[in-house]
């Protein structure tokens, strides 16, 4: 009988292919199975939460001011704080630390959480003695970079927190007229000034000559602190003796910080 070789070859090839596919099928099915999800860790029990709270160290938290704030003399600002893990029996005292001069008392016997309104006076500023033109001395204050300190205390136990705080004295700078300007009798001139810090006090603008008890006033004008005013130069017998004057812009507040809120320029006044 004659053998059909092509048919035998096809049958053999088909059987071999079927064996290969059948062997590979379980591996493909296994690899296509969905991945196993990772379970979330169990929530911490009450005992663990309680222990974590016990591990928090007692501390004072200053809410206001924040690190690096600038506050101005004469302002009333709110100091605000809270405490963490400090018993209710503790009280708070507040101090301002003056560089090289110790601590200035602000408040005492306050609750462990709260707010205190502080009016910033001249005692919290750096000071020095300077000579006057009359042979004496006077105290001059300057801007101060210090620290606000809050202390929680109960008996002999304390917890402290400090925050850097700059205290600045409000000031003004005359922008018009300029030193050496000439004004004429009967004419009106603008006077302008710029402020550093809040200064809501009434102002006074003087044209004066001389100084101290011998000062002579050509004019004196009261005005609001708007940063600008118009001044009309009056005639006066004083002009027969001098043409050299000072234009002075100053606060009418006679206490701190109004006594620092002033500036002057030299002008000539001509008929």
Number of strands: 18
> How is the CATH topology of the largest domain named?
Immunoglobulin-like
From the alpha-carbon coordinates, what is the Rg to the nearest angstrom?
Answer: 41 Å
Order of helices and strands: HHEEEEEEEEEEEEEEEEEE
CATH superfamily of the largest domain: Immunoglobulins
Q: Major sheet, described briefly?
A: 5 strands, mixed
For this structure, what is the CATH class of the largest domain?
A: Mainly Beta
* Overall pLDDT confidence: 85
Q: What's the helix count?
A: 2
Global outline: elongated
- From the N-terminal CA to the C-terminal CA, the straight-line distance is 149 Å
What oligomeric assembly is this protein in? Answer: single chain
Strand content: over 45%
């Amino acid at each position: 009988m004659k053998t059909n070789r092509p048919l035998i070859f096809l049958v053999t090839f088909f059987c071999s292919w079927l064996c290969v596919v059948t062997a590979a099928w379980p591996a493909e099915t296994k690899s296509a199975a969905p991945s196993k999800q990772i379970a979330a860790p169990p929530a911490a029990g009450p005992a663990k939460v309680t222990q974590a709270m016990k591990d928090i160290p007692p501390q004072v938290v200053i809410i206001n001011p924040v690190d690096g704030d600038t506050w101005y003399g004469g302002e009333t600002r709110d100091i605000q704080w809270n405490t963490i893990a400090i018993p209710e029996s503790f009280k708070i005292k507040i101090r301002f630390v003056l560089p090289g001069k110790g601590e200035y008392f602000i408040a005492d016997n306050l609750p462990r959480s709260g707010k205190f309104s502080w009016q910033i006076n001249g005692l919290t500023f750096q000071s020095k003695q300077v000579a006057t033109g009359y042979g004496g001395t006077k105290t001059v204050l300057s801007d101060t970079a210090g620290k606000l300190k809050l202390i929680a205390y109960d008996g002999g136990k304390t917890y402290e927190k400090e925050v850097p705080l700059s205290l600045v004295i409000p000031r003004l700078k005359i922008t018009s007229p300029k030193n050496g300007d000439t004004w004429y009798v009967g004419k009106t001139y603008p006077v302008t000034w710029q402020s550093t810090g809040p200064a809501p006090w009434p102002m006074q603008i003087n044209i004066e000559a001389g100084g101290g008890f011998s000062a002579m006033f050509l004019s004196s004008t009261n005005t609001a602190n708007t940063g600008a005013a118009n001044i009309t130069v009056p005639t006066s017998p004083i002009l027969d003796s001098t043409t050299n004057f000072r234009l002075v812009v100053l606060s009418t507040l006679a206490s701190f910080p109004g006594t620092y809120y002033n500036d002057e320029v030299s002008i000539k006044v001509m008929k």
